[in-house]
Prior knowledge:
By secondary structure, the chain is mainly α. The chain contains 23 helices and 10 strands. The strands form 4 sheets. The chain has a 4-stranded mixed sheet with strand order 6-9-7-8. The chain has a two-stranded antiparallel sheet with strand order 1-5. It is globular, with a radius of gyration of 25 Å.
Amino acid sequence: xxxxxxxxxxxxxLFSLLIGGCKDLDxxxxxxxxxxxxxxxxxxxxxxxxxxxxxxxVNLGYQDLAxxxxxxxxxxxxxxxxxxxxxxxxxSGWYGLLRTNQFMIQRADEVNSPFHKAVGLTMKSLIFGMIxxxxxxxxxxxxxxxxxxxxxxxxxxxxxxxAIYRGIIDDLKAASAIFASxxxxxxxxxxxxxxxxxxxRWHKFTNSLLLRYYMRISSKLxxxxxxxxxxxxxxxxxxxxxxEDVVMDYIGASAGDSWPTATSFDAGSNxxxxxxxxxxxxxxxENQDPRIKVWFREVHCQWVEDKTLATAVDPFIRRNGVxxxxxxSLTDEQxxxxxxxxxxxxxxxxxxxxxxxxxxxxxVGLPPGALAPSEHNRNPTPGQTLENQxxxxxxxxxxxxxxxxxxxxxxxxxxxxxxxxxxxLKGYAVGNAETHYRNGVQSSLKTWGVTNSFDAxxxxxxxxxxxxxxxxxxxxxxxxxxxxAEAWFDFRRTGFPELKPGPASPEPVVPVRFIYGxxxxxxxxxxxxxxxxxxxxxxxxxxxxxxxxWSKTWIIQGTGKxx
Length: 563
């Protein structure tokens, strides 16, 4: 991977641009080390945008949105993750990236670098796509022009979602056309942290995003979607193999450039809270999914049903069948060491005396929206002190700062194949649905290093192709592990998988958007109120006002989805 320690230089550059951009200062106050915007190297602007997007995508798709789509649940600090207890959410981080990206596009024109302009158009589309997918209507056509005079630019109007999606598609088509004939003669490879200046891979990335956004609008603008997806399909220029996945590696030198749950930077606190959700885990176990062992760890201490037991539960744990007097649990570190040495830990219980059953599997998840998730499966150490020995943790790889599997995943070949499979089932001329579906499954297995299990997995009764969109989306949902935002957007559009909140959720349905943030409400109130007025109220408003997580944006209004 291209070392993105160059971010430091980029941030320094941007700071000096800020200082140097104040034209009215007296000469005595000019920064002698500042770089004039007219001299900025367009290559140095790329890492800020590419790295920022990668980090944002992981922070969404591995954290709270993973809870929404029930990939994971938290057994501590779980309100936002498990129960959608969301407040006002600002988008300043996304728009900050857009400002840098806009400057990159401007400089690309000034220095005659079509490659960088196409990169800028692609990233602009992706970032605006995330903003409108998450919130709804947003500043678009008048955004990023704060240097211009006039209230319309200082307090930009909100474009409606349809206009934003159409603009995204137009920019992606323009970028694709540039990549089709551009070269990388102006590129310093180390600054392109995705592809090292590879034009072909950028072209495939751009066209794959076109497929994503055409499918996004397929329920609202079906003719546009059909024509667009068929055109990209005919070109043959899109991601086809897991080796082409658009990813960003982590350096692992500090908390800021490491995987979010790296235990060396937070003593395992964030890692400890995350557990597999039973919605995902049960689906994978039922289908003997080989990715389970890559993503999740077996429980430290397995429950064993024992009707000969004279008490409801063992008072202490057993090591290799021998009761350990006085030991209710071990620390995580002790378990790791002793299990690695070949020891097996169990705890017996008698269901007749207990009056209920416990989860005796070697992989145990948390149910969605549980009222007391840290107590699940009769955890003897509820709270935040120790891990739940009777529930699975994420695999040990997610403790690390960096690893070949720990990547920010922007878009994958698996996603593209599932899009084309769905398109084929809709009757689009894109090839055979089953072929695309099988390729999607195989690409995901390859991504996670279990390709050898494909033949067995694809023959599972509920995995073998059955010609339904539901099956395609369910497999796409599994494949979106650590990129849960895309699974959420698919759920809103299709209603699949059929996610049901748990008892602690404030509403009986999964939310469908983020809430407009305080900055917009305080400083651009007139425009945000217009956007809020265009949201569709649902029965789950319950006095919250239209700006809530259960109001429907244009993209799903009138579709009858997801609930």
